[in-house]
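REQUEST ID: PR-0412
SUBMITTED BY: lab tech R.K.
PRIORITY: routine
TASK: structure prediction, single protein chain
INPUT:
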Amino acid sequence: MGAVYFYHLTRQPLERTLPLLLDKALDADWRVEVRCPDLQRAAWLDEKLWLNPEDRFLPHGLAGSEDDNLHPVLLTTHPVENVDCIISVEGSDVSADEVREKDRVCILFDGNDETMLSHARQQWKILSDAKCHLQYWSEETGHWKKKAEANSPE
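STATUS: complete
OUTPUT:
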């Protein structure tokens, strides 16, 4: 069973934090689904990943083609098969069953957006009640630091 890492974004925006997590996931040889709330945000992230940063390339694709299963990182609005890691952005839900099936689930949320903060708290409660292993990470000091953990694996 995997773990859920909640990333509370307060200093760096999503488009700067996501590539760092994608690099780590690809280094682990994971295939990644980036779950977005809608197609517009998926297209926006697709553009950001192609343009930034200029010194590296993150192989990825936008869901909706017959080649979806070839992309190591797939931006989508719905669950896809054959991924090792789900990165949920901007309130996209992840189920406890998905957590149990994956190596890792990351939930990124904007701590400056009260709606996103509230939604992340609801997700924490739902997944905690389902006995998923959870970690909460904050960047409030300028560096990522684990601030809480629930349901540690034995």
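NOTES: The helical segments are 14-27, 39-51, 96-101, 114-129.
REVIEWED BY: pending
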